[in-house]
Design brief:
Layout lengths: L6 E5 L3 H13 L4 E5 L3 H12 L10 E4 L10 E4 L15 H17 L5 E4 L4 H12 L6 E3 L3 H15 L6 E2 L2 E2 L7 E2 L5 E2 L2 E2 H6 L6 H12 L1 H9 L4 H15 L4 E10 L5 E12 L2 E5 L6 H22 L3
Parallel strand pairs: 1-2, 1-4, 2-3, 4-5, 5-6
Antiparallel strand pairs: 7-10, 8-9, 10-11, 12-13, 13-14
Length: about 325
């Protein structure tokens, strides 16, 4: 009997999907990677191209172009397929268009006998993750969205750059909708255990208005990148690989994903970006931050905006 190996099925080999596959191969995280896309030539070409890089990879990975049937033995299905965000278009503008696409995709995947974990990256990610949960019938813990993992990474990078410290020593979260109503949790932001407020208090060179601008740059980063190159894909691809590693290696890592709230933060029946412990079973638990009053109000606003946007979608779920 063959030993069981980790298999990741990637749905969608556009900019995000192909960048994810490339980053996944470079880090040697899974033993099998199957690429699935309506554009057969593109997915086959990606599989060939990636295989030619195997002599330089850290470990062997079996990569091929496949079909939804290959999802039956997958541990993780990563969905990056869907319509892209166009210049001037918000992530929420995409909601109805991509919900229709996702219904067909998820139904095909579930027909394969898939019983693993879904990881959703397509925008609007919070709403589409909710849709995947409903369409699939899987437990809420096993349907995860990329949430604010990229926003949090952008936040940490810009704070590290501002204070001139390694971004890996910056601990700060962006929570809420992955979009215009997201918010920074300044009350829990720190560098090496020292709060951001303490850093700014003792050095006149650091100004609160500059920190406020850092958040605005985080929130609007996608728009700036889309204006310049048409799409964002490297950052989110790296975030998806980080999530894949946390799942397949059963890490119990805390990452800001789109997770289902069932009373946490005083909210119910919604997927939204919050810190959560992620392992082989999906979301192990939600990390409830003690938000200050301003943060609570902004988080509630973010929830309400998502719920309002979801109303027309819920009729089709």
């Amino acid at each position: 009997m063959l030993n069981r190996v980790n298999r990741v099925a990637l749905i969608g080999t556009g900019f995000v999907g192909s960048s994810y596959a490339f980053a996944l191969l470079n880090q040697g995280i899974t033993e099998e990677l199957v690429l699935i896309d309506l554009n057969k030539n593109k997915a086959e070409g990606d599989a060939m191209d990636l295989n030619h890089g195997l002599p330089f990879a850290p470990s062997r990975t079996k990569i091929w172009y496949g079909s939804y049937e290959d999802c039956g033995h997958a541990d993780l299905v990563v969905i990056t397929a869907g319509a892209n965000q166009k210049p001037g278009e918000t992530r929420l503008d995409l909601v109805e268009k991509n919900t229709r696409i996702f219904k067909e995709i998820v139904e095909e995947i579930m027909l394969s006998g898939f019983d693993g974990i879904f990881l959703v990256a397509t925008n609007p990610v919070d709403i589409l993750t909710y849709a995947v949960w409903k369409f699939s019938g899987l437990p809420k813990e096993r349907v995860i969205g990329s949430g604010t993992i990229l926003d949090t990474a952008r936040f940490r990078f810009l704070l590290g750059d501002y204070f001139d410290v390694d971004t890996r020593n910056v601990h700060a979260y962006i929570i809420g909708e992955h979009g215009d109503t997201e918010l920074p949790v300044w009350s829990h932001a720190d560098i090496a255990g020292t709060s951001i407020s303490e850093w700014t208090k003792h050095k006149e060179a650091f100004k609160q208005e500059e920190l406020d601008q850092i958040f605005l740059n985080v929130r609007d980063a996608a728009y700036h990148i889309i204006e310049r190159k048409g799409a964002t894909y490297y950052g989110i691809a790296m975030g998806l690989v980080r999530l894949t590693k946390a799942v397949l290696q059963n890490e119990n890592s805390v990452l800001t994903v789109s997770a289902y709230l069932d009373g946490e933060y005083g909210e119910k029946d919604i997927y939204i970006g919050v810190p959560a412990v992620v392992n082989r079973n999906g979301v192990k638990q939600i990390v409830q931050l003690d938000l200050n009053e301003d943060e609570k109000q902004k988080f509630t606003h973010s929830v309400n905006v998502l719920k309002k946007t979801m109303e027309p979608v819920l009729k089709n779920i």
